[in-house]
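Re-run requested by the PI after the first attempt was lost when the workstation crashed. Everything re-entered from the original request form. Ligand of interest: LZ5QJXY3.
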Amino acid sequence: MITVLSGGTGTPKLLQGMKEIINPSQITVIVNTVEDDYFSGLYVTPDIDTVLYTLADIINEDTWYGIKDDTFITHEMLKKLGCPELLRIGDKDRAFKIQKTLLLEDHSLSEAVDIQRKSLGIRSKVIPMSDEPSEIKIFTEKGPMSFHQFLIKEKSEPEVFDIHYNIVRPAPGVIEAIKDSEMVIIGPSNPVTSIGPIISTKGVKKALEQVSVTAVSPIAGGMPFSGPAAKFMEALGYEVSSMGVCQIYADFLDKFVIDEKDSHLEEKIEKLIKEVTITNTKMENLKDKIRLARIILGEIV
Ligand SMILES: C[C@H](OP(=O)(O)OP(=O)(O)OC[C@H]1O[C@@H](n2cnc3c(=O)[nH]c(N)nc32)[C@H](O)[C@@H]1O)C(=O)O
Ligand SMILES: O=c1nc2n(C[C@H](O)[C@H](O)[C@H](O)CO)c3cc(O)ccc3cc-2c(=O)[nH]1
Ligand SMILES: [Mg+2]
């Protein structure tokens, strides 16, 4: 069994490559829930839905959220009716979110996700990091705001001073999945607001210290490939580099895959962890994703 820790963009790309070279039923994905929130009365779990749509091959790869070729009739009508949504939710995607919201009336989040996973014919297990609600606050020059206000309304522009989120208990199966795994892969997701909440979940760090953990850097040449990771790492006092990412994971990390642009960091990183692999970590197409997955899985495939 391989367990993967995931957010909603970088790691789902890697999952596309992994499921091509190992039996999907051998994969368990533990997903970030810190951004989960209500929009238009629906309980939206962005990273979970992206992972489910990716494993079901229906993800919109232009945005890394929502369903490909979806329509936005309800979203546009809501705007006309004067109750616009912060998130641009598609019509099929909305149906999926309505189903999850209804399931949550008498199921936990992890039970609801497992029912939706099966309804999409996905053989990999998908587990939310926790069944407990999280709350995240981004402290900026414009004052404290929610993750989506910062990301979407403010387009990640304001300067960030700090990030706070509450520590939650793991969902059933999270600690067991880590402990029973041949290897745990930390995908190239935002180390602060995607992987940070997962490794801060009670008992997860201790479990990671007992197994083989490999991570892929979401940073190359001092820059993230996308999104606000640089601002968040700076706010927490980490260098915006693969070295900074390595320091965030240093307590439990065994192997680290970094980009060719960071080969100058190899020696420094090897002082912290056993094994460094240098390769092209940019995933532009399925070939890239399979090549990177093969390097990470090594002798397992
Ligand atoms: C807003 C976004 O959060 P989320 O959608 O949850 O995304 P993740 O945290 O899962 O991933 C963002 C993370 O991914 C890195 N990324 C993107 N493409 C690539 C790639 O081709 N290779 C690679 N090694 N990393 C990639 C990117 O730099 C981001 O840091 C968010 O927080 O950004
Ligand atoms: O940046 C955006 N992210 C959108 N996201 C992604 C969401 O903001 C995620 O939290 C981020 O990708 C970070 O994980 C959506 C996710 C969904 O599940 C459904 C709809 C959306 C819509 C948007 C959007 O309009 N803009
Ligand atoms: Mg996310």
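Saved to the shared folder this time. Residues 7-8, 32, 35, 46-47, 194 surround magnesium ion (ligand 3) (CB under 6 Å).
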